[in-house]
Design brief:
Layout lengths: L1 H10 L1 E3 L2 E3 L6 E2 L1 H16 L13 H7 L8 E7 L4 H9 L2 H8 L5 E8 L7 E8 L2
Parallel strand pairs: 3-5
Antiparallel strand pairs: 1-2, 4-6, 5-6
Helix pairs in contact: 2-3
């Protein structure tokens, strides 16, 4: 998925009528990836779709618990029910807020997570966590 995200960042995009120029590639961060993977799995296992878990854990708490100690800005995209990385990236690029996160020049690092959970309402769960540095 990060390859697709970085291809889009290298191309530039229009997000909700705002044109974003090409920006640099995101580097994979292990702690952000652990947080994203954990969140995707948690959403499927506990059958919810939200940036906040049923017990109130937030994105910032998740990345901190995963060991991320870098600087902001911070952001998160989530998706559910998409059959492939290409499909979820296309969905995010069609959503102004998600597209803006992908194209934000302040983000330098990312972590991606995917979980396929049999019997869960959406089946597939995707998380993309961003941070500045």
């Amino acid at each position: 998925m990060l390859v697709l995200i970085n291809q889009q960042r290298a191309t530039g995009a229009s997000c909700g009528g705002v044109t974003y120029p090409a920006v640099g590639a995101l580097a994979m961060n292990g702690a952000l990836q652990a947080a994203a993977r954990g969140h995707s799995q948690d959403m499927g296992t506990r059958r919810y779709f939200s940036h906040t878990s049923p017990d109130g854990q937030t994105f910032m708490q998740r990345i901190s618990a995963a060991g991320f100690n870098g600087s902001g800005p911070y952001g998160e995209n989530i998706g559910a029910g998409y059959p492939s990385a290409a499909a979820v990236v296309a969905g995010w690029m069609a959503s102004p807020g998600h597209c803006q996160n992908i194209m934000a020049n302040g983000f330098r690092q990312a972590g991606v997570g995917y979980a396929s959970v049999a019997g869960a309402p959406y089946g597939s769960y995707w998380t993309l966590d961003f941070a500045g540095g």
